[in-house]
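Hey team,

Filing this mostly as a record. A colleague (T.K.) asked me to run one chain through the structure pipeline before their review meeting, and I want the input and output archived in the tracker in case anyone asks later how it was produced. No errors, nothing strange. Just documentation.

Input sequence:
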Amino acid sequence: MDNPLVSIVTRTYNRAERLRECLNSMNVQTFKDFEVVLVNDAGEDVQEVIDAFPELRIQYIVHSTNRGRTAALNTGVAHAKGTYVAFVDDDDIVYPHHVETLVGHAKSTGYPIVYGDVINVTFQRDAYGKFQKVQEQLVYSFDFNRDNFLLANYIPINCLLIAKRCLEDVGPFDESLLVYEDWDMLIRLSRKYDFHHIAKQIGEYRRRDDNSNILEQERYHENEKIIKERYKDERNARFDDIFKSTFALKREIRNRDQQLSQAVQQLRSMDQQLREAQTVIAGLRSQSKGGDKP
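Output structure:
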């Protein structure tokens, strides 16, 4: 069988029913030349879920021990046969035009990295213990700016399509980071490549109000500090440039304000002189008319 154009890396761990929804969303894609690289990080077996989707081309890889979500990404990328790699976690879904949209723009623009928009969807348990959708928000829809990555990650991993050669160029995901591993990867990619933004909603990032979709919640603050420290010199240098340019702009505005103030004062002075001249002229005219009387 020929290699697919796209490999979708999906990591899963003890969320069989959510994985079923995720795979179902891939099963109805309008673009078919893709594979799913499903990496089970030593969780419950999901072969039964996989068997429910015989139309999907699925590589099923199982870690013998739990190595963490970031290692699962690296395993998926290493096994990906596609020219491009996408990422969809087991508790998220993609819309039917997801792959078609990303591939179409990658081909038409020539960019090695393209991304669309995803909706942040919040689920809450109802009185019967079932999760119900309670909120939808378009949180991230920003055009590419590599410097913005030095502040925060503004591109969710499940809206990206990345040429595999780019991932191989910058090296694997950092497995010491259990969260924000995607942010670190995108910073490294953005130092070498331009991204293309597609302002179109192509999937959902799903969040449960009990945070059951985020197993490493306590690591966010810690890993954010690690990444900011890692890129501190670049961030400080860039912000120093911004400060200098902002200071120069403020100085220019101040100088223009001073020039404008001087111009206004000159106009007022000229206006006063004009009024005085008009008074003198009026007086002279009055005297002239008085002198003409017999």
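Quick notes for T.K.: The longest strand covers residues 195-208. The CA atoms of residues 239 and 245 lie 10 Å apart.
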